[in-house]
């Protein structure tokens, strides 16, 4: 990693590069700061987009300040308003309307098993659709991974942090 104290930052950068390299159809990759919720006319993204977040991480102590972390990673796939795939639509319209499933599958295939030199392979745990009040289509893929964080061990304790007590 380029910055051993920033696991999430380094993992985010590597995921973005991996998605950008393997899925040319994705036009926007960013951290998820609620871009698909807070907008007046249109979100400040290009569609289709992928918004990445680390919504949860649980840690377990190993020994001597070393921990293992189990991390959830969410990938929100956002699509502009889409055509109808109802039974009365022409076949070519239905195919176009359902194209987001193909892109979701491509994202799954790209991320499933992805690994770095500091994390275990990513494994898909969940895929859901968001119920929305607007016309956007949003699918969320959730993956898990884990890593060992030894960064606290590598930091020597400064003398100013050591308390001494005079018991006289």
SS strand fraction: 25-35%
Going by helix content, strand content and strand pairing, the class is alpha+beta
Radius of gyration, in angstroms, nearest whole number:
21 Å
Biggest sheet details: 5 strands, mixed
The neighbouring-strand order within the major sheet is: 1-2-3-5-4
The unreliable regions are none
Q: How widely separated are the two ends?
A: 49 Å
Question: What oligomeric state best describes the polypeptide chains here?
Answer: single chain
Q: Output the number of helix runs.
A: 4
Based on DSSP secondary structure assignment, what is the total number of beta strands? 5
Query: What is the helix/strand order?
Result: HEEEHHEEH
What can you tell me about this protein's structure?
The chain is of the alpha+beta class. It has 4 helices and 5 strands; from the N terminus they run H-E-E-E-H-H-E-E-H. Strand 4 (123-129) and strand 5 (137-149) form a beta hairpin. It is elongated, with a radius of gyration of 21 Å.
Which terms summarize this structure?
168 residues, alpha+beta, 5-stranded mixed beta sheet, 4 helices
Task: Provide a brief overview of the structure.
The protein has helices at residues 7-22, 91-97, 99-111, 151-154; strands spanning 28-31, 49-63, 66-79, 123-129, 137-149. It has 168 residues and is α+β, with helices and mostly antiparallel strands.
């Amino acid at each position: 990693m380029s910055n051993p104290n920033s696991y999430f930052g380094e993992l985010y950068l590597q995921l973005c590069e991996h998605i950008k390299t393997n899925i040319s159809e994705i036009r926007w990759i960013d951290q998820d700061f609620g871009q698909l919720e807070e907008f007046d006319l249109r979100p400040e993204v290009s569609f289709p987009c992928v918004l990445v977040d680390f919504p949860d991480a649980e840690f377990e102590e190993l020994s001597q300040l070393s921990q293992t972390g189990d991390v959830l990673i969410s990938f929100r796939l956002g699509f502009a308003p889409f055509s109808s795939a109802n039974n009365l639509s022409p076949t070519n319209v239905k195919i176009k309307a359902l194209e987001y499933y193909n892109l979701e599958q491509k994202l799954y295939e790209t991320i499933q098993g992805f690994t770095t030199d500091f994390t275990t392979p990513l494994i898909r745990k969940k895929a859901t659709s968001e119920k929305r009040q607007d016309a956007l289509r949003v699918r969320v893929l959730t993956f898990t991974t884990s890593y060992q964080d030894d960064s606290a061990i590598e930091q020597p304790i400064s003398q100013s942090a050591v308390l001494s007590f005079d018991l006289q």
